[in-house]
Amino acid sequence: NAGVTQTPKFQVLKTGQSMTLQCAQDMNHNSMYWYRQDPGMGLRLIYYSASEGTTDKGEVPNGYNVSRLNKREFSLRLESAAPSQTSVYFCASSEASGGNYGYTFGSGTRLTVV
Amino acid sequence: RKEVEQDPGPFNVPEGATVAFNCTYSNSASQSFFWYRQDCRKEPKLLMSVYSSGNEDGRFTAQLNRASQYISLLIRDSKLSDSATYLCVVWGGANNLFFGTGTRLTVIP
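ok -> structure tokens follow
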């Protein structure tokens, strides 16, 4: 009964380093999302994948890339990390795209860029 | 103007009290509404959807007022375990799901 699994849970990067955040869901959901959460701001959508094989930009895509590897997995890559990308990152999935379905979130990745 | 606005609180209430949160949204065409709960340093979890006719789930009641563009969450008989941040979420169609910054509730013994 894993739901949405994110790895790693914590990460410290130096400016300019790259990394990939992994996300996998076992609920056979079609849609997956990456959000970031910063103090004083609501969750903001970085990228989403409405279905396997498709990805689209959200509200704050700059500095990120994504890959929908298969129906289960959706990864987020930071090519050259910047301090402004220090945040908590959440992956989420839903049965279908759009907000009419409840989202299930992973436990988050706390990323610090120094 | 933010799509969704909430009073950040904190709301500090004694056990057993009734507490209500409001949330306003800017897009009159918004289609679906939700309340999520987020515990400290945890992920958001869906608490309940908000229907036009209002809906209740145990001690929790959600209401929608489309004319005034706000939704509310009422918690009766507050428990210590209700302490969390409550996120108002509004769907404006397509992939436009907007999260409020949350209202923090602390229930005091």
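Chain B has a mean pLDDT of 93.
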